[in-house]
Amino acid sequence: MKMLSHGLHHNFRHVVRATSGRTWLSTRALRNCDEEYAVQPKYPKIEDPSFTAKKQREAVQWHDKIRQLSTVEEKLFEINMPKYYGYKAHMITDEKFPYNVLPFAQFATRTHLSEGKLPEYYDTFNESARMFLDTMKTDLEDIIGFELSGYRRASLSTDNVPSKNREEIVTAALLSGLNRILVNRISEQYGYLNEVELDFDPRHEAFWFLGGIPPPSLVKKIREGVEWQKTFADDPYDRKIQYVGKPYLAVRHRNPLDPISPDNLDTLDLKADQVEIPAFKYDPITLGYRTEQRHATTIPGFWPGDQHEFGLVSYQRRSHSQLRHTYCTVDDLQEALHSQGIFSSFAWLFGQACYQGFSTFNDLTYPLSTQTVITDGKNWSFYVYQLNTTLVHSNQVDLNPRYNRCWGTKQLQLFEHVDESGKIHGLNEEVLLNLISFYCNAPKVREGVDLKPYLCQTETRVANILDEKRRVFMEQTYKHRSSNRSRHRPDPELYSWEKLYKVDNNTRPTEPKRRPFELGQNMYKRRMDEHALKYIPRQVRPDGPKSKPKFEVTYYPSVRR
C-alpha cells in the first residue's frame, strides 16, 4: 500500500481497498466548493467562424506580435516576414507629383490641411525672429547673393548639365550657408542649436498599409472565381505605400518639438471636430503611381541607436516643378507643393515614430511634430506637421477617430532677382522671418511621457542584444533587407510563352512539370524564414568534424517572455 500511495499528489485522498483478492486505487480531489461553483456561469467566448472574422483575428494576432517584439529592427523586419520577395508597393517619391494628387495625399496620410499661414503658435516667435533678422540680415543677403550670382562652379563647368541638376547643386550650397549662419547666430540665445545633428542628402523612407480602396480587377476576378469568396469580391483591399525621398538637409535633436495642438490624443475626433478629409477611393495607379516589388523600408535618415532621434527642420527639393509641364497641362503647382509637404512630413515623422516602437499597426501614444521647407532658392514654402496617428490600414480608415494636422503657407518669393554683382533686389523679409521662427522653436523634454512604451527597456535596438550570434544575425539581415539589393537569382515569374502554351492552352502535356505554377505553388506566399539553412563545414564546427548541428541557427524576430 505504501508503494501504491507513494508518488501520488498530496492534494488527493487515497483509498486502497482489497476485494476478492484484487486491489484497486481510488483518488478523490480535495476541492473547495466556493472555487468549484460560481454565482454567474462563465462560458468561453464564441468566435465568429466566418472567413472574414478569421482573417481579422489573424491580423490582430500579428499586430500584437509586432507590438511585443523587443527591438526597433525586429519590429521593422517582422513587417517583411510574410513576403520573401517583398511587397508590391506603390512608389511615391519627391520627384513626381501627378495632377490632382492632393486629395490622395490627404487620404493616404489621414491629414487635414490648413492652408494660408503657419499656426498661431508661431506668433510667439515674431519678436525674437525680428530681432535676429536685424542683426544678421546683411550676412543672409551676402550668402544669398554669393550663391545665386552665378559664379563658376567646378561641377557646373560644362554646358551639358541638366537644368534640374544645376538647380539642385546651387540650392544645396545656398541652404548649407543659410543653415550655418542661422545656427551660429541663434545658438547664442537658443543653446539647443549647439547640439543638433545635420544630415546632408539623407535617406527618408517610409512604408505603410493603406485601406479603404476597392480591390484591383485581378484580385476581384480571383475572388469571383472561388465559390465561397464571391460575397467578398468587392471588399476593400489594402494598398502598400512606399515613400522614398532625399531632402537637401535635415536637422535633428535628441528631444522632440512641442505639439502644436493639444497633446491629448484621446480628445481628437474627426467627426466631432467637423474636419473633412477627402475620400480618395481609387487605385493609386490611376494617378501614375506604379508598383514595384521591393522590401518594406522605413528609415528617417539614420540607423536605430542614434541619440538625435527627432527631426526639427527638413529642406525638400522642388526641382520637379521644372518638368511638371511635360506631364501636366493644368497649372496646379500649389497643390503639388502641398502634397509634397504632406508626404515628406508624414514620412519623416512616421520613421521617427517607428524608431520609438510604433508602427503602421500600433498607434502613437503621444503626438510628434516637425517643420518642413520646400525651396529652390528663390521660391519658398513652409509647412508644420503634427503626427497624431499611423492607423490607416483596413477598416481603420473609417473607424479611427484620430487625424493628422498640417499647416502650410502658399508659395513665397524670397527676392525678385540677383544681379551679376550679387546684389539682391526686392528682398522679402517674410520668408526670412518664417525661416528664423523654425529655428527659434526649441525642442523640449517630454515630462511624464514614456517615449518608448512598446520597446524593451534593456533591448531597445539590436546593438543592445547580449547574445552575440543573435545580435550579429539581426544586424546583418536587417540592413541587407533595408538595402533592397537585387538577389543573385531572379524572382519567380510566369513568362508570356508559358501562359500562352501551358496555362491558357494545354499544348505541352508531356513536358515535365517543374515550374512552381505547374506544381500548384504560389511563390509569392513564401515567408522570409523559408529558405535553406547555411551549412557549417566540418572543419569549423565547434565540437568536432562529426558533431552537430550541421547548419547555422537563425534568429528571426520572435516574442520573448
Description:
It is built from 13 helices and 17 strands. By secondary structure, the chain is an alpha+beta fold. Among the domains are: 2-30, no CATH class; 88-301 and 310-446, no CATH class. The strands form 4 sheets. Strands 4, 5, 8, 11, 12, 13, 14 and 15 form an 8-stranded mixed β-sheet that branches. Helix 4 packs across helix 12 (468-483) and helix 6 crosses helix 11 (429-440). It is globular. The relative contact order is 0.16.
Main features:
561 residues; alpha+beta; 8-stranded mixed β-sheet; 17 strands; 29% helix; globular; disordered N terminus
- Shape call: globular
Number of strands: 17
In the predicted model, the low-confidence regions spanning at least 5 consecutive residues are 1-21, 23-27
Q: Helical residue percent? A: 25-40%
Largest sheet: 8 strands, mixed
Q: Provide the structure class.
A: alpha+beta
State which percent range the strand residues make up: 15-25%
DSSP summary: helix tally:
13
Give the H and E element order: HEEHHHEHEHHEEHEEEEEHEEHEEEEHHH
Described by its quaternary structure, the protein is single chain
Mean pLDDT: 90
Q: Ends: how far apart?
A: 44 Å
Radius of gyration, in Å, reads: 30 Å
